[in-house]
Each structure stands twice: as structure tokens, then as C-alpha cells.
Amino acid sequence: MRRLGLLRLAAVLLTTVSVLPAFAQPATGGGSDTTITLVTHDSFNVSKRVLRDFTKRSGIDVDILRAGDAGAALNQVILTKDDPLGDVFFGVDNTLLSRALDEDIFVPYEAPALARVPESVLLDPQHRVTPVDTGDVCINYDKEYFRDQELDVPRTLEDLTRPEYEGQLVVENPATSSPGLAFLLATVAEFGEDGWRDYWQRLRDNDVEVVEGWEQAYNEEFSGSAAGAGDHPLVVSYASSPPVEVVFAEPRPARAPTAALLSTCFRQIEFAGVLDGTDHERAAGRFVDFLLSKRFQEDMPLQMFVYPVLEGADLPAAFVKYSKVAHDPLSLRPEEIAQGRDRWIEEWTDTVLR
Amino acid sequence: MLRVRGLEVRYGDRVALAGVDLTVDDGEIVSVLGPSGSGKSTLLRAIAGLEVPARGSVAWDGRDLAGIPPHHRHVGMMFQQHALFPHRDVLGNVVFGLRMQRTPPARAEQRAREMLDVVGLAGFEHRNVAELSGGEQQRVALARALAPAPRLLMLDEPLGSLDRPLRERLMIELRELFTGLGLTTVYVTHDHDEAFALADRVAVMRAGRIEQVGTPLEVWQRPATEFVARFLGYNLTEAFGDGRVGIRPDGVHVARAAAASGSGVGGVDGVVVARAFRRDHFLLRVKVADGDPLEIAVTGAPVPAVGDAVHLVADPDAVVRFDEGTPPPQLP
Amino acid sequence: MIVRPIRITRGSVTRAAMLAVPVAFLGVFFVYPVVSIIGRGLAPDGHLDLSPVADVFADAGLRKVLWFTLWQASVSTALTVVVALPGAYVLSRYDFPGKRVVRAALVVPFVLPTVVVGSAFLGLFGEGGPLSRLGLEQTATAIVIANMFFNYAVVVRVVSGLWSHLDPRQEESARVLGAGRGRAFLFVTLPALRPAIVAAASLTFLFTFTSFGVVLILGGPRYATLDVEIYRQTAQFLHLDTAAALSIVQLVAVIAMLVVAGRIERRHHQALQLRSAADVARRPRTRRERAVVGLTLAGTAAFLGAPLAVLIERSFHPDSGYGLGFYRALSELRRGSALFVSPLEAIRNSLVFASVATVLAIVVGGLAAFALASRRHEPGRRTRGLDALLLIPLGTSAVTIGFGFIIALDHPPVDLRASPWLVPIAQALVAAPFVAWVMLPVLRSIDPRLRDAAAVLGASPARTWREIDLPIVTRSLLVAAGFAFAISLGEFGATLFVARPDYPTLPVVIFRLLGLPGGLNFGAAMAASVILMLLTALAILAIERFRVGAIGEF
Fold this sequence. Notes:
The structure holds 3 protein chains of 3 kinds.
Chain A: H1 5-22, E1 34-40, H2 48-58, E2 60-66, H3 70-79, E3 88-93, H4 97-102, E4 106-107, E5 130-142, H5 143-148, E6 169-172, H6 178-205, E7 209-211, H7 214-221, E8 234-238, H8 241-247, E9 258-275, H9 281-291, H10 294-304, E10 307-308, H11 317-322, H12 334-353
Parallel strand pairs in A: 1-2, 1-3, 6-7, 6-8
Antiparallel strand pairs in A: 3-9, 4-9, 5-8, 5-9, 5-10
Helix pairs in contact in A: 6-12
Chain B: E1 2-11, E2 14-24, E3 29-33, H1 40-48, E4 55-60, E5 63-64, E6 75-78, H2 90-94, H3 96-100, H4 105-118, H5 134-146, E7 152-156, H6 164-181, E8 185-189, H7 192-198, E9 201-206, E10 209-214, H8 216-221, H9 226-231, E11 235-237, E12 245-247, E13 252-256, E14 265-278, E15 281-288, E16 294-298, E17 309-314, E18 319-321
Chain C: H1 10-42, H2 51-58, H3 60-93, H4 99-106, H5 108-111, H6 114-125, H7 140-163, H8 168-176, H9 181-209, H10 213-219, H11 226-236, H12 240-267, H13 277-280, H14 287-315, H15 325-332, H16 343-373, H17 381-389, H18 398-408, H19 422-445, H20 448-456, H21 461-489, E1 500-501, H22 506-514, H23 519-545
């Protein structure tokens, strides 16, 4: 009797194994004709109801494949372009756009709704990619800190090098973090090829703190986040962080504890595209239309914490109440980014870390 | 009947058995005697099928056992240090072979208990083997080997780790047991007392070969080679002026140095350099003018003391001559 | 020269059959993908170009990365072994109330996602933390300490797996012979333990050599390891040539380390007189013994417990009074999202994946261990090579393996891209070598005469395996299974970087929550971490309850 131990263990494990096929079919509803696969990064999200309605109306089921962070996801799509992982890719942004276009991974698709999208986010005239959302990477500050210290809030990037802000800023490593890269690009856009290294040298002299990822910067080093035990009142984060900080607080504060410095924002634009080699080009196009639909665009802010590109899409109340949008964010053309990105990261590493 | 013919075993380039011939009749106890490293254990392992011979054969009742794996050879084996299964209790060890034979559990357990009774361990059934004394472990190992009623029992230095009085008692008991059960037995030891006490015949091994086979008396009285003689404790000497001979320790008589030179064969003078009491005799080490010191056993008084000059006379019956005078041929 | 006939014995056929499974598994799921991705980097058009490898050594920055990787792995390994030995001693030699719980709890740090542990350590070392005065934030010391925290359990459990079977009488006899406590340990126990220590140290080295998250979070950007660099070059820059060169450097370093470890292990390998664990362990008797047990347990609790305590405390809402708010948030936040997972679902996914991975790991790793250990006399060259080969997946960047999967496993018969099986397979790739490596020293310590005795008593090779090897090795098999389970629960490995259908596990839930601003998200991540901790401890307790009955504690 007792000797059955190992057999029993095996039996239990095998039983659990047999459960696996039972849920090997993604649960995105049924009864439809076509199933397309969306390849995307780990931050993608959508409301259950919104996606279900799309399936109901179009008869298209959507399998979602997540492929790591934005960089890893794009690179996998590039590596598998001869035998694509899916039908639609969502999540390439302007910092990586030219890599995607150079590799010819998309087929053109011109969504009718592009008519209601501002010119400034239409970066590919051939419509191989379709803009879906924007997100601004900006310095966030801890309101309470500056109030308590009776210190003026810095207004510009240049201000951050002033002695009264010594040791107050925490940034992410652009080599491993997407907001970190965006902020580096912001400084390049602001100070130009010739001036940005000097600016970072001055930031370094002013005791800027560098950490690897956003999680650590925001949750651990920043004093303004609800989680934060940190003592840096300035952090590189998103323009959407202040409203999100309010939405996910209990109890909800009347005012956001943090705010973004709108003059420091760099705009990330995220695109979707129909993958070359798909067997469901029509359905894939309809899914891109869906991404630009009012329904999805209005759902997006509270799912992915980004801003809609569709004119007329309403922002959620919390976004209106607790955040402002930069009207003239810093930006670089995708070709400039493509040419400079890797070199800037190397030079940044030399300037700031070594 | 076990018949081993020209058996050769190699471990890589090392030759462990270099052509062994040996026959063991049904019911016979054969002792394989030799120094460590002479290939005794390998011989047992090859017979059991645990080693695959490079040449030669092992046959039982005329049937070649080549290709028959150990678990189908129906031999029993007691290993050096017993190799008891640490994860099973005493009964679990003894009953193991019976279980492998698919003996019904009740019968197997009954037989195992009988075997424990035979070796005097009744009541130890559920003891943990690691807690047993050396002697008890040895009995468990014996009971385990006997329980499946093997057609051939092989024992590898079974008494090696035991103290002397226990060993001497067990030697007799084992012989009684084996002859009582009519077991065909191969018994490996490096101790000639043990071999002589137990065996019907003794095979002396050296460097992977058998040097001599015979009854204990034959081997003891007429060692065939210098090696066997030396291994049995003979003095190898030319001191008696009669060429190189082997002389048994108890075949040398002592006379005081001054007295009666010329009586007996030869005769040689020497000085006692060491003396040890051995229950029924004294063992003297005597330095002689020519060659290695001699070891002689002296019974009865007077026993010379260390430093005494003595005159030694050899008993002709205790003197052995070797024809060969050549070492055994080199191994390939 | 002697020409020896090749003998095909039944044993060698069995061994070959047993080896076939792990060889095929590693071949398809490790060698093939890794060779594919390296090939894509170094021979994109079919012509092998090794100049990127030379470039790696020419680049001072990369040389520094290589050096730091080796340095932190070596130092962490040495310190972990030293610090963990007392724990292994106490767990092997003494019985005390709650011992099973302690054994299970030890593994908790091992499974926690590095992000969470990093966060916990920052809670201790960082500004405002109770240990902030030590000034450890963003230092190499912090990396080493966190590595020790992760791998403490590996050393304790692997070493005590053997130690708890070592006959204490050997040490006692040395003491009787006049050796002091220290000398008896040094000259009797330590050599006997060496195979297990080498095994544990090798594992620790590999885990720390490829440590990724710990270095990123605790070391800060100034410290980079090879793995971080490979991740950057592959996942961020798509510089497959540099990544391939770095992967080759990593593989060579890992193989060199394994060869050295293998040498040490074999040189000191000896058959031991093993006893059942129940005989070896006893209650502490003297005051001195009680003090040793008490102090060791207290030290372990402080070292492993402090960061965990930070997590637990944070999960109970320290800001506005303690409560279960974060646990509620875990099942309520973002319920309407298509990719929302309830905690129960995440737990179920975690358990299913971990079970599958554990079964795979035990089959693959177990067969490998038995096959490698079942050779007689002179160890054969081939199996020696395999010994080391087995562990290479542990020392290979998860990004290399993951991207290899993506480009290699995309045609039938192994079209596994985007299959849920990818997850447990990737986990088993880490867990299977682990299983084999934990079992090998114990299997090799089994006196071969036990098998001979069984054979002579009529047991066929298969029966011998079932009656002798399996029961004796069960204890370490269970330890290995526990670790395999833990490895998969903690979601180590390639799956984090590859396209996968969405069956989010607890660590994935934790990652997602940590990626968002807002106190509720952060708190819910802490709550999920605590649930993961509990789940791990319970799973390991449950696994270890399975015993092969008649053989007691072995």
C-alpha cells in the first residue's frame, strides 16, 4: 500500500497534465468562421466586452500571442517573417518603426478611419503601418514634495541640471527600458546631436540616478507613487501616470499626487500592421479597422494607459481631470532615430555610466 | 558440478584472470586462497556472471553459462562487507531472492524466517540492517544468500571483518552448515587457516592464475611452488646447505648452540632476534649467517630467549624442494 | 595491441535506450534551436564568419562584462556554499519540530520572480529601508547577497540530500582517533560530501552566471552580465551577430566550468556507506547542540526571512492600516479586460504548467541520471561528456533559447511556436538537468555491489533498478521534483521572451501589475507574490509527502 507513493505521485501529475489540452484552445468565444492571430507585446490589453463585440459583429475570432516587451516582440516578428507567427502585429512604435519597415514585414493596408487621424502621427505614406495610439514619456514630479520643500517645480529639461534639483531625478537605462530610450531621444531632440551629451554630463554632475527599468524607477525610487518609499521627487514616466495613479488608488484622492512636466515629453506613437504572408488579409484589415474604431480607441486609455489617435474619441473622465496633454511634444523623425539610436545608446552609456 | 576452463577476465588493459581452470564437484567445498589482488573475487564474479570473460568458459553440469545473465544463474553469493540493502530491514533482505523467484509471499516469508533461524537471528526480522553488528550483518548476508536455495554458493571473504574467536567458531559452524545442506560451495579467503578448516579442497591463486589445487593436507604439506610455500608461512632458505628449500616453521628443532652439532639434516647456527607467544607455541625469529631470518615454532620448554645463540635442525619431512626454480611465465 | 571484441550486453542496450530520451529532448529543444539562432547570427548567408567573436574580446566594455559575470558568479557561489553548509548540517543531522516546513520554506526564495525579490531587497537596502545605512544599493555586494538569497536552498537541499545519508559513525571514528570536531569535519565529512557540494556549487554557479533580473535591479545599470548583454543585443538591437558571439563565449565559459567541476567530482567520487536519513538525524541532546540548531535556524530565518517579511508586510497595506485590500484588488482590478486573469486562474495555470514541466523534467532528467550512473568500472568517455553537456542549458541565456525556439521549431514535426507546450518544455529544459544533477551524486554513491547482490539473487536489470536504485534515490528524486516544480512555478527561462498564447501564470500576473502605476497595482503584485510563496511551500510539502513506503526516510 504505502509503496504506491511514487505511482500515486505520477498519477496525480499525469492527471494535471491531462487538464492541459482541455484549455489549449484560447477562450475567445466561438461560432465564427475565421480566426486571426494578433502578435503583440506584453502591455497590450482590451476590454473583454469590446473584443467580444468585434467577434460577434465580424465573425472573426482573435487569438492573442504575447511576445515579451516591445523590442522582443518586434524582433521575433522580424525573425519569423518567412513563416509569420500571426496575421496582425500591434506594438511597433516610432523608435523602432524604421527597423520594421526596412525588414518588409507588413503589407500595406489603408484603413478608412485614417481620414480622422491627425497628419502628425501618419509616419508611413505607404500605409504599411497604421497609427493606433500615442503615449508621452515625460518627467513626473511629486507634488507634495515640492509643496513641502517650498521649491519651484522645474519647468524645462535645462532646469533639471540646476543645483536645487541635485540628486532628485531618477531615469531609466535607455538600453533596456522603453521610457528610458524615449527620454534619451527627448534630450537629443531638445539639445541636438551636438549638445545632448554635454547635457547628460551636466545631469550626471547633478547626481542623476539611473536604474534599469521603469518598475524600479517608479515603484522604488520615486517618492510620488503610492508604492514608493523612494526619495526622488522626479522620475521619467508617462503623461498618463498621474491619472492612473488616481484610478488605482484606494481611497481615490481628490487630486492627483503627481503631475507631468509637459515641456519634457517625447511622443511615442504605436502602430499596427498586417503581417506579410497572412492567409487572412481581409480579416486582418478588419481588425486594424477595429483598432481605429471609436469603441476601441475610447477603451484603450484605461486598458493600456495611452492616448487615442482618432479624432473625436473621448478620453475617460479620469484622464481629463487628472492629466494634461503636451501640445508640442519633442519628437524625432523615424529615420533619424533609426540612424542614431544604437550609437546614442552607446554614447549615453559612455557618458553617464562609465 | 561447476567447471571453469581457461577463464580470462580483463579490466581495460589490466588482466585480472589469466586462464583459470577449476572444477567443483557437487556438494564439495572448495576454498580459493590467495593474497589480495590475486583475482579471487574476480573469479567469483565471473562465475556469477557479473564479469564477462574475455576467454574461457564457465559451465554448470556440462552446460556453458556464457550469455546467461547473473539473475538466471541460480547461484548464491555473499559479498565482502556483505552488501546488505540499506533500505530494507533484515527480513526484507533475506526474502529478496525468494521474491525474485516469485515464491508466494507467505511461503517466502516462512522460508526467510527459517533461514534466519538457521543463522541464529530469529527475532531480528524487522531490525534495520545498519544497526546490526558486523557478525550479525554477516549472518543476514548468509541467510540472504541461502534463502533461494542456490545450486552453488559463493562466499567472498565472509569472515573478513570479524574478530578472531568469532571467526574460528564460525569456520566450524559454516563447514557444518554447508556439509549439512550438501551445498556446493566456493569460498574465497586470504587466510589459510580459514581455507584449511573449511574446505574439502584448496585452490591457491596468484596473479590471476591458480598455482596449486589439492586437499588442505596436500597443499599444506607439499606446496607446489615457492609462492605457495611462502604464502603458507614456509621459510624459504638456503641456510641448510642443501640448495634452496622450503621448511615449515614447525619442522625446525632447536638445540643450544654448543650442543650436538651434526645431528639431524644439516644444521645451522643462529641468534634469536624475536620471540612471540602463540597460545600453543612460541614463534621465534632466528637470524642466521646466510640469508633471511628463519621463523620457527617451538613447542615445549625450554624456549630460548631473545639474544640466545641456537643451533637449528630441520625435520626432513618438513622440507620441500621445488623443481621449477623459475617464476611462472609472464602474462601477455 | 589487444583488439577487444565489442560486446553488446543487455545492460548497454538498456543504457542506450534510457539515454535516447534525454538526448532526443536536449537535441530537439536545446541544441537545434541554439545552433539555429547562433547560425543565423554568425552565418546569415551560409558562410561562417567568426569575426564577431573576436570583436567581443577586442571590445573593452564587453571584456568588462565578461569579467564581471565570472566574478559575481564565482564569489556568489563560494559564499553561498560557505553560508549554506551549517544549514545543510542541521537539516541532515538533527530532528526538530517543524523540520518539514522549514525544508519547504527554504525553497520559497528560489521561485520568486526576480522583480519581486529585487523589490524586497530594495525595501531593505534602499532609501528608508531598515538596512539603508549599509549603503548597499546599486553595489556588487547587493548582487552577491541577492544571489545567495536565491541559491541558498539549492546548496542546502542538494548537500543535505547526501549528508543526511552519511553514516555519522565515520566522523565519530575520526573523533575517537583524536581528530577535533573541525578536523573530523575537514578530513572525513567534507571529502565524503564533495560530490554533493560540487554538484550544488555547479548549479549555483550556472544560476548566478546567467542571473539577469537580480543584476538589473540590484546592481543598477553599471553592472551588466553576459545574459543582460545578450538580451540587449537580441531583443532590443537585433544584433544577432554580436548576440551569437556572446552566446558562444557564454557556452564556452559554461562548458569549461562544467569540465572542471566534473574533474573535481570524479576525482573524489567514492562509494559511500549510506544509511537511511531517519537513522542519521536525531534530536539535539546537549546544550551545545541545541544552540547550534537554534542559531543556525535563526540565522537562516533572518537571512531568508527579512526580504520575504518585507513582501508580506507590503501585501497587507501598510499605508492606511492593515487589511486584505490588496488581495481583494487582485481579483477585482481590471476584471473587464480581455486578458484579465483571476488569481485562481493564474494559480491553476501555474500548477498545470509546473506539473507538466515536472513530469517532463523527471522523465528526461531521471533517465539521464540513471543512464549516466549505471556504467561500471572505468567511466566511459562518452558518458563523461554527456554529464557536463546535460547542464549546459542552465548556463545558456534564456533569450538565446527563446529566440532559437522561434526560428527553429516552426515546421512540422516540431511545430511548437505559439503552442502552450512551449512553456513547460522551456521550463523542463532548466528543470531536467537540475533533476539529473541532484540525483547523480546519490546514484553514484550507491555501492555497486548492492546491484550485484540483487542480480545474483535473481533480479533482472530492470528489477534491480526498481528494487535498489529507485528506492534509494527516491529522496533525492523528490528533492529534485520539488525544485523542478519550483523552477516552473517561478517561470524561469525562455518563455518570458517568446510569443506565447495567453495562459498567464502567477509570475506573469505579478509582472503585469508591477508594470503599472498606482498603489493598488503595486500592492496587488505584493499580494500575488505572497500567494506564490505560499503555493510554492505547499507544493513542496505535498511533493515530499510522497514516500516510497517500505524504505522509510531514504
